[in-house]
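Fold this complex.
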Amino acid sequence: MEANKGKGEQGMQIPGGQMDRPVSFHFMESMLPKVVKRRVHALKRLQVQCAHIEAKFYEEVHELERKYAALYQPMFEKRRDVVTGTVEPTDAECEWHSDREEEEELAEQVKEKASIEDAKKEEAKPEEDPKGIPEFWLTIFKSVDMLSDMLQEHDEAILKHLKDIQVKFSEPGQPMSFTLEFHFEPNGYFNNAVLTKVYKMKSEPDATEPFSFEGPEIIDCEGCQIDWHKGKDVTVKTIKKKQKHKGRGTVRTVTKQVPNDSFFNFFNPIKASPEGEMDEDSEFTLATDFEIGHFFRERIVPRAVLYFTGEALEDDESFEEEEMEEGDEEEQDDEGDDDDDDEGDTNKEQPQPAECKQQ
Amino acid sequence: MEANKGKGEQGMQIPGGQMDRPVSFHFMESMLPKVVKRRVHALKRLQVQCAHIEAKFYEEVHELERKYAALYQPMFEKRRDVVTGTVEPTDAECEWHSDREEEEELAEQVKEKASIEDAKKEEAKPEEDPKGIPEFWLTIFKSVDMLSDMLQEHDEAILKHLKDIQVKFSEPGQPMSFTLEFHFEPNGYFNNAVLTKVYKMKSEPDATEPFSFEGPEIIDCEGCQIDWHKGKDVTVKTIKKKQKHKGRGTVRTVTKQVPNDSFFNFFNPIKASPEGEMDEDSEFTLATDFEIGHFFRERIVPRAVLYFTGEALEDDESFEEEEMEEGDEEEQDDEGDDDDDDEGDTNKEQPQPAECKQQ
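Structure:
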């Protein structure tokens, strides 16, 4: 509202126009003396040059990410081995100083209930000696709203076989992209050991809109063919339909395969079409897919254990809010938005000038 | 709300606890079999190692920013010269293809009013041949909410003398920081040619909270002494106060200098105190100051002309919303929040996986 403070006095208000809309600034620009407007255009040309330099900067950051991916690799391999039970960490590797007070408080709260549950478990005794960290990735899928929204009950048994998720960056000189690799142990559902999803990116200013450039952008993605075992494809379901013959009036039952909700549709995304030829639904679906790809790459894969324990979920509230719109928005809003007025949240507003995080 | 889907069934709900709060995950963790919990701790130790690698990554990004600052430099110098009128750009340097349709439409809208205004201007004829781009930076200060909130009427005359704002990064091997330099032409207000504000940053995981690390963070800032001409200091005002002598009953008038609202208080920020010893107001003030410093560095300086023309203001709506809370929140909210439900805004939600933008 303050945006145009003072400009009205100079007679720059558009009749009926909103004062805080850029349109009024545009107008202002066109009201400048011709010699000044000319100089502003010179600055705009310089700004376009800056946008192209910025694009190069992001390419170098991408290179830097490739370099660091190699540095993280040993840690991620160790993680996979611990998760799958291939390696048992030593005592030294497991030393962890938890927040004792918090633990004790929680323990107090649940003691009673827990003892009942424990008793139940004792009876059931499903496995005395679990291998690795059972359902590590499935737990993450269930915990993160963006993923649990896609998750169907029939997906869960399959995701128990997910061993690891890795991010691979495109090679230097290649078009910028990253690939999510979902590594599975042998399972009764499909033959693939790895399911992949490639996200293609663009890091250059648009010729017609150079100023909208804000860094690399996902522009397209590509899934993979899943080689399902017979009858195990959860992305389709078979429905029976009765058909009446027009002439004879006889009825026959036909079976038909129709798409079925499943996380595994993630590997069969809709195609991005070049220029605004998509309907709104498709655009929304694709935008959501890009967001999920970005989230896997930026958050889930780099810090999986924190999603498993729930420690990362608090930090990501703002990230996930974007995903709320179609779901149970109201309930979340009650907590999220109101909190913003709390003094205690002031810290959240403090900019974290992370040169390399967007969110 | 989906976060804990399924966990309730396994008896993991804390009595009275909220299912979507991380606390329930914490609890879950503590309910894990001991051997599994041990392995989770091993993963957490790996995660701490990753956080330290990430810190190095951000240091390298900072280096990259230093490198690119040098590449932007010629463009920024040219910008300064055009703004101040030191250099007149050539015709080729000023060629700009505006969106004709938009321009014509606007022209139509304002033709009538404009002609009246033009007539008025013709009479006034303040300067036939303006130098450079008059009030370039002042216009930006007026246009950006975050800055206009600080701006007082008495600041405006001073900011007309602002020639340039530059960002300088700390040298390699030095503690990470950046300095905002405000370059002024000789003026009747103070002797400094440059006013500076240094923002000190930290790019390492906190020992007690390693997982909260998200990249470099501003931790402190330092202003500079302004060498005001006598009687020109707009950051103080003189008030007269009547004092009555207790014994004699005589009244005398004393003058007293008290702080005055001004943008120039930006150069005399409150000091960050080490550990939570600040009251909420001070914390909020400092957090806002950090945000403004970050905004100068990330947005205003790199793309000043777009704030001058207003073109950047639209993109920054989300950035600026953070600043709305104390001001004219409702009015803005009506437009901002409602827009989010528009189909047309779907694109905004598309993640821009800019490896190097935070927003």
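The CA atoms of residues 43 and 192 of chain A lie 54 Å apart.
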